[in-house]
């Protein structure tokens, strides 16, 4: 559980399963507060659900291809998604059904996604060998790093630090 509490009822507890949320493979999942989770799928959508009931509370559908990653800004209702359509998008849980911000600029699928601890910047990584940082409010690209043979697989912003950790298919962590 996100609040650190662990429930135990015996040697093994059965997994809770709900009706399918996506019409195709689920490709990414993340927590959105204590009671909500978000997921992205091959059906090009981002869904926000109650993990307790399985109820779908919101669905966002502006990506043109499979959603590869989802994440959220700490302590906010902003949701970010990355896709094979070479973009990342920002959604407001309680806002309009269209993205509140778009982050275009990669040449291949976006495979890494991380939000700064203060929620002001987004970092995206791609199979195009680049990592980009973005201003969340304006959508402006703040920086771009290109490293040969750096096929980005995952990104993680380091809490309390101005650093992003990145993994790659070249077997390195940067």
UniProtKB/TrEMBL annotation:
<feature type="repeat" description="WD">
    <location>
        <begin position="60"/>
        <end position="93"/>
    </location>
</feature>
<dbReference type="InterPro" id="IPR040066">
    <property type="entry name" value="WDR31"/>
</dbReference>
<keyword id="KW-0853">WD repeat</keyword>
<keyword id="KW-0677">Repeat</keyword>
<dbReference type="InterPro" id="IPR036322">
    <property type="entry name" value="WD40_repeat_dom_sf"/>
</dbReference>
<dbReference type="Pfam" id="PF00400">
    <property type="entry name" value="WD40"/>
</dbReference>
<feature type="repeat" description="WD">
    <location>
        <begin position="103"/>
        <end position="144"/>
    </location>
</feature>
<protein>
    <submittedName>
        <fullName>WDR31 protein</fullName>
    </submittedName>
</protein>
<feature type="region of interest" description="Disordered">
    <location>
        <begin position="1"/>
        <end position="22"/>
    </location>
</feature>
<dbReference type="InterPro" id="IPR001680">
    <property type="entry name" value="WD40_rpt"/>
</dbReference>
<dbReference type="InterPro" id="IPR015943">
    <property type="entry name" value="WD40/YVTN_repeat-like_dom_sf"/>
</dbReference>
<dbReference type="InterPro" id="IPR019775">
    <property type="entry name" value="WD40_repeat_CS"/>
</dbReference>
